[in-house]
Write a structure and sequence with these properties.
The chain folds into 2 domains: 155 residues, Tetracycline Repressor, domain 2, CATH 1.10.357.140; 142 residues. The N and C termini lie far apart (75 Å). By secondary structure, it is an all-alpha fold. The chain contains 16 helices and no strands. The radius of gyration is 21 Å and the shape is flat.
Length: 313
Amino acid sequence: MTDASYTAQSKETEASFGDYFALLKPRVMSLVVFTAFVGLMAAPVSVNPIIGFASILFLAIGAGASGALNMWWDADIDRVMKRTVGRPIPAGKVQAGEALYLGAGLSGLAVMMMALSANFLAAGLLAFTIFFYVVVYTMWLKRSTPQNIVIGGAAGAFPPLIGWVIATGSMSIEGWLMFALIFIWTPPHFWALALFMRSDYDDAGVPMLTVTHGRPSTRRHILGYTIVLFVLAVGAAFTSIGGIVYLTTAVVLNSLFLKGAYDIWRRDEADSESDDFAVERKFFKLSLLYLFLHFGAILAEALLRPWGLGGWS
């Protein structure tokens, strides 16, 4: 190989800013930012806009740091899963060590700056969330138990609670209800994906419920969690974060979600294989809208409240 061709190849494989940004899982980060912002806005205490913006920014950085550390540790299984093979590390665009240094550095920065911009409780929750996602979920649960996504889902459920704490400096039932909404939503969301992506988890040796207990058991679990989610989501309408806008949204959306879970439960393997898991894919797509619409309704209640239109007052 000539020097010129070697240089050209090096430029082709050189990591770009976009490759490093992809390590931060921007789509996940956007959900973190949105739910945390809703938690902040729903709180009964107003926050200085600059402090609020800075705190949400540092929360986003912390979430991105978690994503980079997750990709560093999971690089081996990402290489064998169709869904993740294009990520920067398995694609050969970024070295695993770079992801480790980036994630560790951003984690420290995010927690330190959260303490300075908001309060120590919010910073402590952010630090615990990063630890939980990286160590408890990624390094331990994900490869050791079919309950990986159930317990590990707590990491993605903390942002609205942190947003609430940024505003109030304390925790309350409303903050925990928003946490629970994400926590109970996470298993049916990911199990629906696992139903039509089971081969990925088989190949990677990840003990997802579809692998360890089979698809029929997974379908029953989806229905069970969706029933609990229905009660929780509708019940939250009658707290201080709810109101007629949220109640209407919750009833309609959870009715559709429950119908989808029931349709999944009543299917068998022959039905699923014959139409390429169309029902499961439809349920998964609905689950992508589920949190956005619920938290959008909570945000609408918060924005209407100063005008005397939100909530039940």
